[in-house]
Design goal:
Elements (H helix, E strand, L loop, with lengths): L1 H40 L1 E3 H8 L3 H13 L3 E8 L6 E7 L5 E7 L3 E8 L4 E8 L6 H18 L7 E8 L2 E3 L2 E4 L11 H8 L4 E6 H10 L2 H6 L2 E7 L3 E7 L2 E7 L22 H4 L1 H9 L18 H10 L1 H25 L3 E5 L9 H12 L8 H4 L1 E5 L5 H14 L8
Helix pairs in contact: 1-3, 6-14, 10-11, 11-12
């Protein structure tokens, strides 16, 4: 009898604890939902938040009081509404309350952005990476880069929530295990490197293409209109990701290691004639050097790849370079056509400085593919897919990983009960 009474008390206590947890989860969900509305709309009144969220007035007042006391939102002015004499107080997210630091790098440069909860860029930094560099020199350069970023934003360090690395290559167990263009970085512990400069901060590691895709996921209009999206980036080398119904499905698509030629060019992956051996920044530099008089361009030292702007200029001024690059873009088009026929996307987004060779990159790539492959038969995946070009800065992956960290910290899910 005593045991039964004790069991009943224990079960009753567990139920009460579970109910409290559920209530707290529901409160957090509503707070995050309203924070998400502020991120989307920038400036809102209580009346507008109630209309957009559907929550009761008491819930709106409770959440607003919490966000104001926590200094997550601040007043943004008073405006008169349609009713004469009726004024509303507007609020916005505090610009420096919650901050996220994103870092990315490729073979030629490293970049960082400090981003607010609302998505504003508070600060940014760029440093060039010499082409001939070893692990020790790279880590020293990265340490200086992070130290300078910390120094330039010293008064804001306490507000940085998380730090994210959007890294090229494959990541396993928190380590960069493979990056074709910088093999000396294998098994480097970037978490340990960041902890030395930013102790007690959570360090987040992700692939740069995944982070790049996270940038596009922040565009609700785009993901709402196009269920299946391929993102193709062409910078240091070709890279691809796939979004399906607002979720990242393929975040590390090795399109650069699809077969693209018959010259028996060796690839670091062990195979031959991968797209990377024809269309990487380094491969293009080598091929253009063989075309240009003297083997080098005017803006290039012995240890550098040809700058992207110079490649675009050569494309438009040197017929032999245009012929070479049209051939390379054609090889890319053939590989992309295979990917399109497999994934059947609604939209293909092109990005990267090399596409600047075309006055209209989307139209230019479509023309090259259609002239090379007369895709007019019963398979109409390419014909149906929309191609667009996004001229995005190189630090987009750093911005994307910040968006991803914000989403994880302030995830909003509609209540199911």
């Amino acid at each position: 009898m005593i045991f039964n009474c004790f069991s009943i008390i224990m079960i009753s206590g567990m139920k009460k604890h579970c109910l409290n947890d559920i209530r707290e989860d529901r409160k957090k969900t509503k707070r995050n939902h309203i924070i998400e509305l502020f991120r989307l709309k920038q400036k809102l009144s209580k009346i507008e938040v109630r209309r957009l969220s559907g929550y009761s007035l008491s819930t709106i007042i409770s959440v607003f009081n919490y966000l104001i006391n926590a200094k997550i939102i601040i007043p943004a002015g008073i405006e008169e509404k349609n009713i004469p004499g009726r004024k509303c107080t507007y609020y916005r997210l505090a610009r420096e309350k919650f901050l996220y630091l994103g870092i990315t790098f490729v073979q030629t440069e490293m970049l960082s952005v400090l981003v607010s909860l609302s998505g504003d860029i508070i600060s940014s930094r760029h440093d060039d990476i010499p082409l001939k560099i070893n692990q020790e020199s790279f880590l020293k350069l990265m340490s200086r880069h992070l130290e300078k970023m910390a120094g330039e934003n010293s008064r804001l360090l306490v507000n940085i929530q998380n730090i994210g690395f959007a890294m090229p290559g494959r990541i396993e167990n928190g380590l960069l295990v493979a990056y074709s263009f910088m093999p000396f970085l294998k098994n480097v512990d970037f978490t340990d490197l960041a902890k030395r400069i930013f102790p007690k901060k959570r360090i987040y590691l992700d692939n740069n293409i995944s982070s790049f895709l996270s940038y596009f996921l922040s565009d609700r209009q785009l993901t709402g209109k196009y269920p299946k999206v391929i993102v193709l980036s062409l910078r240091t080398g070709p890279a691809m990701g796939f979004i399906y119904q607002g979720r990242i499905v393929t975040e590390y698509g090795e399109i650069g290691h699809c077969s693209a030629g018959r010259e028996a060019r060796p690839c670091v992956c062990g195979r031959k004639d991968c797209l990377d051996t024809y269309l990487s920044h380094h491969a293009l530099t080598r091929d253009i050097q063989n075309i240009c008089p003297g083997g080098r361009t005017t803006e290039q030292s012995d240890e550098e790849n040809i700058p992207f702007k110079e490649i675009v200029n050569l494309y438009n001024t040197v017929p032999a370079v245009k012929k070479l690059l049209d051939l390379r873009f054609g090889q890319l088009g053939n590989v992309l056509l295979d990917v399109i026929n497999i994934l059947n996307p609604d939209l293909v987004i092109l990005s990267g400085e090399l596409f600047g060779c075309f006055s209209d990159p989307a139209a230019g790539m479509r023309h090259l593919i259609e002239s090379e492959q007369r895709d007019t038969g019963i398979i109409a995946n390419f014909k149906k897919a929309e191609l667009i070009y996004k001229n995005l800065p190189a630090d987009t992956a750093a911005l994307g990983i910040c968006y991803r960290m914000i989403k994880e910290d302030f995830d909003y899910r509609k209540e199911i009960f």
